[in-house]
């Protein structure tokens, strides 16, 4: 029998939907401008809640037989909405027409009755310090109205929530208020001027870039004119961007990659692209797995090319998202060629390749002056999934080279044995990094002579790269040091 070759069952590109993790609560935002709200009682939380309702523009009636000094002062302190203090107990009639009702009384039975009456009147109900009686709960707020951020830990960690709030405060310049207000004022004009989704999106993206670049400058008519002009002049029609997703850690995406993901109508991605990366896509974008794994079933390259071209022809912004860097063992050449042949504009956004991601997490220089004069990237696979016959063994055995082997898993033993037979010193440091830059990253270290056995014994899974060369001796030393300190720490 001939050697088994890698038989791939072709598979079809398939549309995927980003799953949504469970939500502890559903954040919703309640417009209260000009609506009636009722608060009954004068418990500790009452004054602040009244101010919140008034800040949201509500007309607040407060029923408190014995209001505290603080509560009494509220009507004089507010700058929006209106507050009327009634110095008496609430009655069910007081709730008619209320959009929002808050029970802030001390007596539990009174509160239960209030909540029932408020619900009967159709109001949204909250009860201070009584979560079991609440339809809705308040969170921490960052106010850049009309931009409003609500933060909840669902009661789990209020102090933690406050710290998050402080951080978000710091992230959002005060000037965002004016920018978001300008967006509200300009929206109608923009919508009337541009009918296509992608034009509008173009406008709003440029707008947002400006806001982030100069948050504390008041936007004005000149900004609107510029942005309208830029949008008129923007290129029309579909295009393809080959985008590097990096090895897994989403923070390794480039700003350009992020922009391309936010702009994309359709994203065609490989199995190796870490799921966390897709979270950066626009929610409305279609995502399609055009799975190409090393060994599992794959979509045919021709099908992927055809799909890419067809989507771009229909006017879509297509992102072809590839793990690592698109131009490193990514068959990008064929995809670029297919786009060019079809007259589709195509661009490439580079990414952090697996070798770089792995080296960074190991903290080793791949070109350490004393150990390496040359760095080479080699594939462990040929088209049939076997060790390529045309590897330059002399180059692999060179003592002053660092070699990084992509797709090494099936052929690792054969590759290292042959390299040693061709003159690579058996003691040369060698290691495999699995899942580089991902939370489950793991590495197995050894020498050219023993690494294959160690890998087999490790039982580790996932995308992996092999690195061989004297430059990696540092990584081994560092590993030993950290293992030793871990032992000491125990
Ligand atoms: N364009 C990619 C390489 C695609 S070839 C890049 O530049 O990284 C696919 C191979 O890349 C895998 O078989 C594996 O060898 C390597 N690879 C991709 N992501 C990896 C990761 N997170 N950790 C280790 N190796 C990875």
Give a brief rundown of this model.
It is built from 16 helices and 18 strands. It has helices spanning 46-55, 69-73, 108-120, 158-171, 176-193, 197-213, 221-233, 255-263, 275-278, 301-313, 332-341, 354-362, 393-397, 412-421, 451-458, 473-489, and strands at 14-16, 36-40, 59-63, 82-86, 98-103, 124-127, 140-144, 147-151, 239-244, 266-269, 286-289, 317-322, 346-349, 374-379, 401-406, 429-434, 442-447, 464-468.
Kindly list the characteristics that best describe this protein.
16 helices, 19% strand, 490 residues, 4 domains, alpha/beta, Cobalt-precorrin-4 Transmethylase, domain 1, five-stranded parallel sheet, six-stranded mixed sheet, binds S-adenosyl-L-homocysteine, elongated, Rossmann fold
